[in-house]
Amino acid sequence: MYSWSNAIKTRKRSSKNFTPTAFKKVAVIGAGYIGVELAEAFKRNGKEVVLIDCAPTCLSGYYDRDFTDHMSDVLEKNGVQLAFGERVTKIAGKSRVEKIITDKKEYAVDMAVLAVGFQPNAKLGEEHLERFRNGAYRVNRQQRTNLPDVYAIGDCATVFDNAIGEVNYIALASNAVRSGIVAAVNACGGHMETEGVQGSNGISIWGYNMVSTGLTLEKARRYGMDVCSADFEDYQKPQFMKHNESVKIRIVYRRDNRVIVGAQMASRYDMSMGIHLFSLAIQERVTIDRLKLLDLFFLPHFNQPYNYITMAALGAE
Ligand SMILES: Cc1cc2nc3c(=O)[nH]c(=O)nc-3n(C[C@H](O)[C@H](O)[C@H](O)COP(=O)(O)OP(=O)(O)OC[C@H]3O[C@@H](n4cnc5c(N)ncnc54)[C@H](O)[C@@H]3O)c2cc1C
Fold first, then answer.
1. d(CA 43, CA 78)
2. 184 in helix, strand or coil?
3. What is the C-alpha separation between 229 and 212, in angstroms, rounded?
4. 273-291, pLDDT tens digit by residue?
């Protein structure tokens, strides 16, 4: 079976023979953001790709199945082999990777990329600093740790998650830069508190764009929330406009107080800026009903008089 240390020694000895163009088939293990983006990049560079994930779909942390199924179609239509619902148990080979073994099948490959997540780098000072359940430094809304003169920012620190109203861990560059601003102001004697975050994110694969913020239906239910969704799909612009694409939207809101806790959008049109409205809605605890008559401008070049945001909100339970 494969031994990492032997493989590294062998690779060092034979590195002259190994060039990035030498491999033909790659297994990308983990179909989160990085895995899906890598699958596209390898495929665009002429490699055969199998994308493996133990979840039943790709991007399962950020979108509901109705959305991820579309992304799976895009990947498949562009030649990526999908192996979802399979747990990798072994990476096998003699002197280099030869196959990936899952609990269901085996895949002959000559390269593997592990994109299965990471742990925050928070060992430094661990004996003094309070940490979150995944080991990240636990910080307050001013980015202070439990020691008054020690701040933590970026991927090593917790965030305040507005969608669940609690401390959480969401590693993103966007969160990192904001946490840096907050810590810098406080460390320099000013006073600033984070607004909290929603984990807003986006991905674009072969021109298919998906953006989301806050919680999916599935995730909200896992947090024990009684939620429902307002869904709509329509063209971005009036149908007399030449260049037009359909847009799919889901707004997730609580049944008890009707506060919005998440939103997802998908389209070949660049509708990405629309998700910022929902990020603010979650931050400010806006109800789905407040969106029904919200003043959204209309110009045929951009959208419809009753666009999909209005229509989804009007259709809410
Ligand atoms: C492939 C990939 C793609 C990504 N794409 C996106 C994206 O599109 N959008 C997005 O929002 N986020 C994205 N992210 C996440 C984003 O990169 C991170 O959230 C962000 O870089 C975190 O910034 P940071 O400064 O906390 O950590 P890092 O950028 O990891 O910087 C930490 C630095 O600390 C140094 N360091 C570590 N330990 C020590 C020590 N003991 N002493 C001194 N220095 C030390 C490291 O060398 C490193 O330079 C992506 C991440 C990856 C891996």
1. 8
2. helix
3. 14
4. 999 999 999 999 999 999 9
- For the chain, state the CA radius of gyration: 23
pLDDT at position 219: 97
3-state SS, residue 156: helix
Task: Flag whether pLDDT at 53 surpasses 70.
Answer: yes
Residue 281: domain span = 204-314
Q: What is the pLDDT of residues 247-265, one digit of tens each?
A: 999 999 999 999 999 999 9
Residue nearest to atom 38 of ligand 1 (CA): 121
CA of 55 from ligand 1 middle (Å) equals 25
Q: Are residues 107 and 123 in the same domain?
A: no
Nearest ligand 1 atom to alpha carbon 34: 1
User: For the segment 203-246, what is each residue's pLDDT rounded down to a tens digit?
Assistant: 999 999 999 999 999 999 999 999 999 999 999 999 999 999 99
Using the mean position of ligand 1's atoms as its centre, give its distance from the Cα of residue 178 in Å.
14
Is ligand 1 within 6 A of the CB of residue 122? no
pLDDT score, position 10 = 47
- C-alpha–C-alpha distance, residues 120 and 157, integer Å: 8
249 Cβ contact list (under 8 Å, min separation 6): 231, 232, 233, 263, 264, 265, 308, 309, 312
Tell me if 41 CB under 6 Å of ligand 1: no
Six-digit token pair at 167?
């401390």
CATH code, domain with 180: 3.50.50.60
Number of structural domains (the chain) is: 3
Q: 199 CA distance to ligand 1 centroid (A)? A: 16
pLDDT-above-70 percentage for the chain: 93
Q: Is residue 170 part of a domain?
A: yes
pLDDT at 20: 59
295 CA to centre of ligand 1 in angstroms: 39
Provide the token pair at 11.
Answer: 């690779």
Taking CA atoms only, the protein residue closest to ligand 1 atom 36 is: 121
